[in-house]
Design the sequence.
């Protein structure tokens, strides 16, 4: 009874636009918004990145991934890394820092392990979405990367709240459905996610694949199905809804070729996100 009361409280807060963010998330969010400012000068950007050592390390790692380091020249400075990956991908790395902050303060060992697994899933989905967008679904790859990074933001939020409310997520079926959608929608708004990206993410819950795959939602659906690490918060979909997606990814010569050609690239990018 108490667990249902706690969950109802979280949903009510989301409906009112009152999601509770820890201080560390608010600080990371302010940095993300600053980096989104088109008038932010390059020197200000570099100073902001240098002021966040974790973001600086991840930006340098991403700049040296196979996707961005076509020349093979290793970068060791933040300035060169920012110039190589560009503002849009730097914004994505800042968004990744925001999302990961939700799991960084979790005290419960079980929830902390779930948060770590959820980020592994997220990193693989983001890297695969970038490849699939570029080679299969004709979606902007940088947008797909960004969407992959933030698509589980609602799950990270619930894990952080579960740390304060023991047992909240013991039965995932209880928080799926309309309640999860309410929380995810508010997270998209709170994180200033573009509407088109937010709609693709919100629609994942009830989505099915009708080949040929098109658009950002289908890109994320395929990436999530292919990710080698599953989300710890995933709930089994009805067989009829998942059958088409499963058939597409298990019996598709073109997709197999794309994944084989891009395996090193996807692995390199997901490793950079996991730094």
Sequence:
């Amino acid at each position: 009874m108490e667990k249902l009361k706690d969950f109802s409280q979280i949903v009510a807060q989301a409906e009112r636009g009152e999601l509770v963010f820890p201080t560390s998330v608010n600080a990371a969010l302010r940095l993300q918004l600053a980096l989104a400012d088109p008038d932010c000068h390059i020197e200000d950007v570099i100073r902001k990145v240098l002021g966040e050592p974790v973001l600086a390390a991840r930006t340098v790692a991403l700049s040296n991934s196979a996707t961005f380091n076509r020349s093979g020249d290793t970068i060791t400075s933040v300035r060169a890394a920012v110039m190589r990956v560009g503002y849009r991908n730097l914004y994505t790395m800042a968004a990744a820092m925001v999302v990961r902050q939700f799991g960084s303060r979790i005290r419960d060992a079980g929830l902390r392990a779930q948060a770590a697994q959820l980020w592994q899933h997220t990193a693989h989905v983001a890297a695969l979405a970038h490849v699939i967008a570029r080679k299969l679904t004709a979606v902007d790859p940088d947008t797909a990367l960004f969407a992959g990074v933030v698509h589980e933001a609602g799950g990270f939020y619930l894990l952080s709240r579960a740390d304060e409310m023991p047992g909240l997520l013991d039965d995932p079926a209880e928080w799926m459905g309309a309640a999860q959608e309410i929380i995810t929608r508010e997270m998209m708004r709170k994180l200033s996610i573009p509407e088109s990206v937010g709609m693709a993410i919100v629609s994942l819950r009830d989505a099915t694949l009708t080949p040929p795959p098109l658009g950002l939602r289908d890109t994320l659906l395929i990436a999530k199905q292919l990710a080698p690490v599953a989300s710890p918060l995933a709930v089994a979909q009805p067989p009829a809804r998942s059958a088409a997606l499963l058939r597409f990814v298990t019996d598709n010569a073109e997709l197999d070729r794309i994944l084989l050609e891009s395996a090193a690239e996807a692995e390199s990018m997901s490793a950079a996100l996991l730094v």
User: Anything to note?
Assistant: The chain has 14 helices and no strands. The radius of gyration is 18 Å.
